[in-house]
Amino acid sequence: MNRMAGRKPAAWPEADRAAWELANTVSYDVWDDAGKALRLRPWTRKGYARAYGIWLAWLDRSGQLDPAEGPGQRPSPERIAGWVRTMRDMGRKNGVIKLYLMSLHAILAFLAPGTDTSFILRPGGRSLDELFPTEPKPFTPHDSGDLLEHAKALHARGLTDRDGDQRWKALRDAAIMAMLYVYGPRHADISSMVMGENLRMTRNGQMIARFRETATKDKRWREYPLHPVVAAIVRDYLELARPHLCGPAEEDWLWWGKVGEPLTYRGFEGVVRRRNRDFTGVAEGPQMARKWLTETAKNRSPEAAFDAAEVAGHTPRVALRYYAQAVDYHSGGRHGAYISELREQLGELADRAYAERRQRRGGG
């Protein structure tokens, strides 16, 4: 069995399906539990539902799916262990297994609120990171400042091009890539930006990017003024290109693809991959900009690593990891410079000692 086929929500047991529908139903009664999942992004809800459907399908295939049980009654340490064994037998990588377990735990908060399912995240008191270690994929680092120069060159080309689709898209793509390279927002955040909500102008003309706590991984508001260089590129897109791309459409989406059609999640990724291929030779996706940003900060100073983690919305644990890497990096550099200096000094001392020795032997 190579494919993990799951059940769609319509095929879930009645209690599970009703609980999920309630969590996804708009309600104006502040006292009920309806609509709680609506604070999640659509693709997050879809991912949770997919993982839960795979969980239900495994229970069914293993003869453990009892329609009389509720969502909170089905998970147990023994069943979770059996599901993990099956995924391992199927060759699923640690990162995939960890993702499904985290998604199962997350969706049960909506399907069975109040049920203690903490054992899913800490089997036997050990963390998922410890049980399912993952190795970061190798990548070629690029300095974010150098990448911004590519975005600026694309912007300049868009300003001088003749009016037309090529010009509008050059200005749009330059704005997208400049924001990615300098701030590293998550793909889901930047691709779904809305005018006025996620991008606004202050009275003094400053441009502010902001993301709600429900749209960020660490559940914190993310708000920062755009650097003047980035703001100028984004402003030219708004004034010169966006009106042509959005056409008569009245939606407030920031990014537009074909005339009258907002860029989709996948369409945004396609833009980024094409431009990264033009700039670096490799068609990397939006996530790579975050890695480039943190690597750039790490290489410049430990304190910059903290700043990059804060802007990118990393958790404190991830921020500390980047800071520690930056400290190691710069400590190693200073130590290497010190050793090189000692080596030069010792080399000079050795040269003088051997010269004196040769002179004594020659004189004898």
UniProtKB/TrEMBL annotation:
TM helices/strands, residue ranges: 95-112
Keywords: DNA recombination, Membrane, Transmembrane, Transmembrane helix
Protein name: Tyr recombinase domain-containing protein
SUPFAM superfamilies: DNA breaking-rejoining enzymes
Domain Tyr recombinase: from-to ranges: 134-336
Organism domain of life: Bacteria
Oxidoreductase is among the record's keywords: no
Keyword Repeat: no
Classification via Gene3D superfamilies: Intergrase catalytic core
